[in-house]
Structures are given as structure tokens and as C-alpha cells.
Amino acid sequence: MQQPEQVDTFAHSGEVGLVEWHDYESSRPFTFQNGDTIPGFRLRYETYGKLNAEGSNAILVCHALSGDHHCAGVHSIRDRKPGWWNNMIGPGKPIDTNRFFVICSNCLGGCQGSTGPTSINPETNRPYHLDFPVVTIGDMVRAQHRLVTEELGVQEMYAVVGGSMGGMQVLEWGVRYPEFVRRLLPMATTARQNAQAIAFNEVGRLAIVQDPNWHDGAYPPGQGPHVGLAVARMMAHITYLSDQGLDQKFGRERISRAAARTLFDAEFQVESYLRYQGQSFTNRFDANTYLYFTKALDRFDLYGESGRLEETFEAIRARTLVVGFTSDWLFPPKQNREIALALLRAGKNAGYAEVDLPLGHDSFLVHAPELYDLVERFLI
Amino acid sequence: MPPRQQIKRETEQSILSDWIEPRQRVLDVGCGRGLLLEHLNQTKEIYGVGVDNDLAKVAGCVKRGVNVYQGDAEGFLKSQPKDAFDWVVMSRTVQELDQPGRVIDECLRVARRMAIGFANFGYWRNRMDALVYSRHRVSEVFPRAWEYDWRHNQISVEEFERFCIRAGYPIHERVYLRGDWRTPCHVLPGWRAGYALYWLERG
Fold first, then answer.
1. In terms of CB atoms within 10 Å, which end of chain B has fewer, N or C?
2. A→B interface, C-beta within 8 Å
3. Cα distance from A322 to chain B (closest Cα, Å)?
């Protein structure tokens, strides 16, 4: 096992400081839910804090669709931005690395170090591309279960925490490994997406597959449907924000009146912001992974064949706190509430709290003292 | 927490502890910071769920390990099947509700028994203030004057008991407490009770 390393010299008070990622290689075959098997897989992950002797103080952080394993600290002192949940994780922060051993792993099917469509298929010595098996939220969780039990020595999970797609994984953990997980903290999530969320994903996927550079998924590394992926990202990004959030940030502010010579130049700040979001996304994210992950989101459905969520939740043993955000219109409060209500109908220990922030779906990522307070209290 | 407030809470808490059996399922509508449910969890090992629509209060419940749902009472009750709980407790909440009668109906659908407690608006000091000064009395229970505070239904003992008869909900037990909310009161409760607590049955 690779020991998690942290260089304390650069850590200032309250920050995890310099961190490194690690790669876990599982050399046993992995069979996906659809029946397809790969001979092994790699997951890229980071850890902060120390696992106690009983192996019982681990908290797994599950990332969202476009997130990754780097959720706190910096990789180099020159990094412009810390990990994506740095405000939540660190010494003395709501997810306190003085108390907890925090794990954040990349997802199976991903493109940021874990095995996915861009990885080499050992049977053909060529990238998998679309031969990569269709991945589900359940597959992601089962792969991470191997990481935490076989590699990291976790005996029981103190908590599993995550928002959006991460929240789906949190629920999946509770259902799939009830004896292993003590607390579940899903936020801004859903037990199944509504038609609207599926519709947005479909537009994103079509933008990618209609891009002539997609080549049925068999594009060379560094190339590919950049235009389609950027458009998909731009549109999805809008669904993560809100009317009020966009208005506060950009309003109708213009870059410069003179700069917009044609109808097609970016004229308003919001346009330029979205273009930048789309473009920078193509540098770090793989289009095929985007197709795979959005499908995994669309197919995730804990209501099951009976259509009764409480039947699925019968299995759960963990205490659960669901957090919804008033302005989230992608996975609206109602869908978060339904999770808590079904848990309570099933006689489980559960709660629902709603945080009123104006920033839409991404509210769980922003500076939010009320959310910190809830997380801290729940993890007591 | 001022000690007088604590005393007020304690008497009601101990009465409810007598009524509620160990390991019963208890729903607390308007549960605040979850103090009652925490107490019942510890002393009676109940399965408790609280409902409150205030995030700060909900956070208090989360800290105490009390199951809590942030939202409106009626919405939550409607989501629950018949007899989901053994008890519904509603302490100092009924005056806040938009349609208390409808909510009480829902409470007695999801549970066979209900404990409901409220400050008696017919308490003589309130009547005096209304009669002599034509005003709502500002007191420990309602510390803010009318211009700062929307007081929904202020209920009196007589009014509530007439409602129970009309709605067909038998009162299994009733406890009247004096203005200090701890001394029992037997004579002229409509005038002398500061607080009233009822055990209602579905009927």
C-alpha cells in the first residue's frame, strides 16, 4: 500500500497544504453491472489526515460529474486554486482532517487518472474508446469499495459525503454496503433524475456525437470533439447556476462595446465566461467519459421496479442527512426531500435540511456557513 | 436558556414522558431544537422524528442526533401513511399554523394519539389586558408587541375543547398548569390556566 504523504512544511494553519495523488491498481477482474468484465482497473485518489488503529475514522468524499480526486489542498505552491472542496475539508474545517481520514477517489470510467475510455485495453493494446463497458453509479461505488477496503484498510466508513452525482454515490453506498457505512450525507442530489435533467444531458451528448471530430469515439489523445464538448459543458454549466446567481455575477455587463464587431463575437460578460468554461473543460475532460457519466446519471434509479423508494432504502443502516438547496433547479429541493421522506417512511434515522443560497445547484460548493454548520454537527 | 423557560419546558416534558411508552414511534410537529425528542430518545428509546421549518432549529436537531425534517407540518404529514406513528406531539406550535384544524386531522390520521399543548389565551392576565387596555398582552410567551409579531391563532381552553367535541376527538387526559406552567390548576382552568396540555384520541 502506498502511504499517503503530506508535506507539513507548507501547510498553513487550517489548510491541508501540499498533497499528492496516488494510484490504486486492482489486478483482479472487475465485472460491471451490465455483465462486461475488464481484467483490472486503476483509481486515482487522494487522502488527508490519518486512519486510526481501528480503521473507523474514514470519510469518503464522492465527487460530482466533472469533479476529481483533488478535493483539498494544493499539488504545488504555485497552484492557482486548491482542491474543489477546500473550504469544507481541512484541519478544523467541517470535515476535520485532524479527526478524520478523508479519502477522495476518482470514478471508474473517468478521465483523470482512473481507468476509463481513454485507457489502454490490455487485450488489444489500444484505447478502449467505446468498447469500455457501460458504467453505472453502482459500478463506481463497487470499484471504490475495493480501494477503501483492500488498499486503504478501512474497517468501517465513518461517513460518505457528496453532492450531485457524488450524492447518488452516497446513497448507493448506503444501499449496497449497509453494514460498512455509519453515516450518509448526500446533498443537492436525487434518487432518480427527472425528465428535465435527462433532457439537458441528452443535448450535451448530442453536441458531442454530432461533432465531426468525435469519430464514433475513436479520436486520438489530445484531439476529439472539442467544440461539442465545450458546448455541452457551457449548457450544463448554466444548469448548475441560477437566474439570480448569474445576474449577480454578470448582469448585462459587456466586455467592451467596440469588441463585438459581429453578431457572433462574445459581447456580454456571461458569454465570455461560458466560452472560457467550455474551452478550459476540453483541456481536462474527455468527451467519451462525459457520454458515459451522463448516461450513468440518467440511468440511476433507486425507485426500482416497484417504484417505491422506501423499499430500496429498507437495507440502509446508516444515519442519513439529506441537504437540499432552495435555488437548485437541476436536482430541486423536492427530489432531495423525497429521499429523506422515504427513509423516514422506512423507519430509518434520517433528516432533511434545506439551505437557502441563491447560487443554484452548485450551492454546495460555495462558501456557506450554514452548510458548514450542518456538516460539522452531523459528523459529531 | 433562561431558567424560567427551562422550568416551563420541564413540566410538560415530564408529563409527556409519562404518557409515551418506551420504544414508541413519536412525531414532534414544531420540534424546535429537538430537546424533547432527545430526552425521549435517551429515556424511552423511542423512534422519534421532528418537523420544523427553521434551519437553525433543524441544525440543533442534527447536532443532537434527532431525526428531523425541514419543511411545513402539513406537507410532511401528508407524506406519511396512516398510523405511521404511535404519537404526534405538538407543543406550542398550534398557534403558528395556518389551518390548525386540518393539521390536527392529519396528525390523528398518522397516529392514534396526539399530545397538544398551548398557552391559554383565556388566562386571566390576557383577559385583563384585552378588557382594560384593549391590547394583546406582551409576556414571556409572546415577548413582542403586535407590530413586530404576527400572532396567528391565540387559542383558549374553552375554544379548544369545543373544537374537540365538534371534531369528535375524545380528550383522554387534560392537564392545566397555572401561570408558572408547573403548578396544577383545577378550579376555573379557563381563567386560571396559563398552559394547557391535552391527550387526544382519534375517536
1. N
2. 319, 321, 337, 340-341, 344-345, 347, 349-356, 370, 373-374, 377-378, 380
3. 9
Structure letter (DSSP) for residue B93: -
Is residue A284 domain-shared with residue A305, that is, in the same domain? no
Task: Give B-chain residues touching A353 at CB under 8 angstroms.
Answer: 55, 58-59, 62, 68, 70
Contact flag B62-A345 (C-beta cutoff 8 Å): no
In a domain, A343, yes or no: yes
Q: What is the C-alpha separation between B36 and B44, in angstroms, rounded?
A: 11
ipTM: 0.93
* Burial class of residue A17 in the structure, from the number of CB atoms within 10 Å of its CB (0-12 exposed, 13-18 middle, 19+ buried): buried
CA distance A100 to A377: 14
Q: What pLDDT sits at residue B146?
A: 77
**Which sequence spans correspond to the domains of chain B?**
3-201
Say which residue the cell 392545566 belongs to: B176
**A341 contacts in chain B (CB < 8 Å):** 69, 76, 79
Residue A259 pLDDT grade (very low, low, confident, very high; cuts 50, 70, 90): low
In a domain, A1, yes or no: no
CATH number at residue A259: 1.10.1740.110
Residues of B in contact with A379 (CB under 8 A): none
Based on the fold, state whether residues A186 and A335 are members of the same structural domain: yes
Tens digit of pLDDT for each residue in A6-46? 444 444 448 999 999 999 999 999 999 999 999 999 999 99
Distance from the B121 Cα atom to the nearest Cα atom in chain A, whole angstroms: 33
Interval A116-138: pLDDT, tens = 999 999 999 999 999 999 999 99
Verify that A321 and A290 share a domain, yes or no.
no
What integer pLDDT is reported at residue A10 of this predicted model? 40
Q: Do B25 and A337 touch (CB under 8 A)?
A: no
How close does chain B come to A114, measured CA to CA in Å? 36
Q: Which domain holds residue A280?
A: 197-295
SS3 content of chain B, % helix, strand, coil (to 5): 40, 25, 35
Are residues A306 and A248 part of one domain? no
Pick one of 3.40.50.150, 3.20.20.140, 3.40.50.720, 1.10.3370.10 as the CATH number of B3-201.
3.40.50.150
How does pLDDT run across A44-68, given as a tens digit for each residue? Answer: 999 999 999 999 999 999 999 999 9
CA A206, A208, A210, A216 dihedral sign is negative
Cβ atoms < 10 Å from Cβ of B144 = 11
For position A162, which CATH number holds?
A: 3.40.50.1820
The catalytic residues of A are 164, 328, 361
Average pLDDT of chain B is 93
Specify the number of domains making up chain A: 2
Question: Cα Rg for chain B, rounded, in angstroms?
Answer: 16
